[in-house]
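pls design
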């Protein structure tokens, strides 16, 4: 099928440009774009001057299969992703049981086929994510694993971790770490400080993140492994990251959209939908993270989509589950940074689409000839009030419930096929 998208505002994260133009799709790929004429026989879609960008590549999404399908299934996560302009989901292995064998990975891959978007999987770095014995990294790569991580289960044994890093380096695998010092962060619910003390909540210093990052970076320097820090959320961690990059280490870093748009005071009167891992930081840390994204020091913006059922959130703050859903709210939340003048649209899509795709060796994330036609058409200025019960995710634990937001997805395309239609409501 030949599809012609005309009168679009083309957002190019590679060239960091916004230009008016058209885009032509054939056989699931972009074949031409810019000031081009409509070919004979093509299906035409008028974009009406709205933004057309590469589909988002969301690195670090939790899906509840296997084991927690009541929180999120591949089908509901896929629908939520399509509605949010996410065309490629990179799923975490923190399932029950963990995705730590080729058999469990193949099961998840088969189940993911029912989703309307692309879903790729990370596998566990250690068996059971318990930090004692590395997984069969080579076999898991053969089965389709795009990276290896124990997610929030931080390995405390540096010798085990160094061996896993060395093995991953030999196979060319990428490791995704969660920079935290587990002893300091154990049992913490918020970031330490005056607010935590006034609320009587157990806190953790942002230094726990820096200590964990410094440990991981030392092991990266020792082994030469490709490494990605899933979330860098504090200003104290940024100099270590900058030094590692300046030294030529193969290191990148991400940050969740919640840590870029919310701060510790949003917890307010013990609002459990704002309980995250790591916890929300100070406004100074938030601004430092935003600037790091603008400067390219932090490479990736992700949703860190973590579904949690009502029962696990309707608990005292200290006992409530951490995390929030974010597949559908990633783009409108990110557009807060655009409307505030902190980041341009090409910068946003560099961090949400181009950089995660490049880091994982995927062809997606580009608005260029020959690239897969995974696209999102959106109106960055359309206002709406978010109602969490309208979300496609099974779990509704979003911190943005009742929030006035700007930016609506009008259409999502995967390989040139429209998987999310324009919604008039």
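designed seq:
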């Amino acid at each position: 099928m030949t599809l012609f998208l005309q009168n679009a505002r083309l957002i190019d994260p590679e060239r960091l440009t916004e230009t008016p133009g058209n885009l032509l799709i054939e056989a699931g790929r972009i074949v031409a774009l810019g000031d081009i004429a409509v070919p004979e026989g093509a299906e035409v879609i008028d974009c009406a001057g709205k933004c057309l960008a590469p589909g988002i590549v969301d690195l670090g999404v939790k899906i509840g299969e296997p084991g927690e399908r009541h929180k999120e299934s591949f089908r509901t996560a896929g629908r939520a992703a399509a509605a949010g302009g996410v065309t490629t989901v990179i799923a975490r292995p923190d399932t029950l049981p963990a995705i730590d064998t080729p058999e469990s990975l193949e099961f998840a891959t088969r189940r993911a086929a029912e989703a309307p978007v692309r879903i790729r999987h990370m596998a566990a770095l250690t068996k059971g994510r318990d930090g004692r014995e590395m997984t069969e990294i080579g076999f898991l790569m053969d089965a389709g694993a795009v990276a290896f991580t124990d997610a929030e289960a931080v390995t405390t044994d540096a010798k085990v971790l160094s061996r896993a890093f060395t093995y991953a380096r030999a196979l060319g695998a990428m490791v995704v770490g969660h920079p935290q010092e587990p002893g300091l962060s154990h049992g913490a619910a918020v970031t330490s400080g005056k607010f935590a003390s006034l609320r009587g909540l157990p806190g953790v210093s942002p230094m726990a993140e820096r200590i964990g990052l410094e440990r991981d970076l030392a092991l990266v320097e020792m082994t030469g492994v490709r490494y990605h820090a899933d979330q860098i959320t504090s200003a104290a961690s940024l100099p270590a990251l900058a030094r590692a990059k300046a030294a030529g280490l193969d290191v990148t870093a991400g940050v969740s959209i919640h840590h870029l748009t919310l701060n510790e005071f949003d917890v307010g009167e013990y609002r459990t939908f704002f309980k995250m891992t790591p916890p929300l930081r100070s406004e100074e840390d938030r601004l430092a993270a935003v600037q790091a994204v603008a400067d390219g020091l932090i490479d990736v913006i992700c949703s860190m989509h973590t579904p949690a059922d009502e029962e696990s959130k309707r608990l005292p703050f200290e006992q409530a589950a951490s995390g929030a859903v974010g597949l559908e709210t990633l783009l409108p939340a990110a557009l807060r940074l655009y409307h505030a003048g902190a980041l341009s649209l090409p910068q946003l899509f560099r961090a949400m689409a181009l950089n995660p795709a490049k880091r994982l060796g995927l062809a997606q994330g580009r608005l260029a000839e020959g690239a897969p036609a995974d696209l999102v058409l959106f109106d960055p200025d359309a206002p709406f009030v978010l109602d969490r019960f309208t979300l496609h995710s099974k779990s509704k634990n979003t911190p943005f419930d009742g929030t006035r937001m700007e930016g609506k997805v009008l259409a999502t395309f995967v390989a040139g096929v429209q998987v999310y239609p324009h919604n008039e409501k």
